[in-house]
């Protein structure tokens, strides 16, 4: 069975070779330590690993920030407080609609009745005059707001006239 090259307990082939060289006296331990410390490629690899780790952390924090912003934007949709409020409103509407459905027959009867409960009895000889009067009454009612507003401004006319004299 082949040895696992990633197993940290067993030394790699390069480590075994360097260990044999130290034992044979070809290399000293100090020279080996100096070589590993002074090699710029190893320090560069470590820096790149640190940069990669920092980039991963930045990406993770950016993702967390994006999730928090999304949660903040959708709080009125997903937060339980707002959901409870909406649920209560829907329950009230549902209760009202259920009451309307229960009273459906009586509501239909009430809506079918005339507003004043009976027709106005008018003698046949006056029907022609009532037919002429109704359009005039409708026009009067349409302009009633304007008439009321005009009546309210009548007491203010002397004050407005004084102001006009002062400004001119």
Automatic annotation (TrEMBL):
Residues 51-110 form a coiled coil. One of its GO terms (cellular component) is HAUS complex. InterPro entries: HAUS2, HAUS2_metazoa. Keywords: Coiled coil. GO terms for biological process: centrosome cycle; microtubule nucleation; spindle assembly. This is HAUS augmin-like complex subunit 2. It comes from Eleutherodactylus coqui (Puerto Rican coqui).
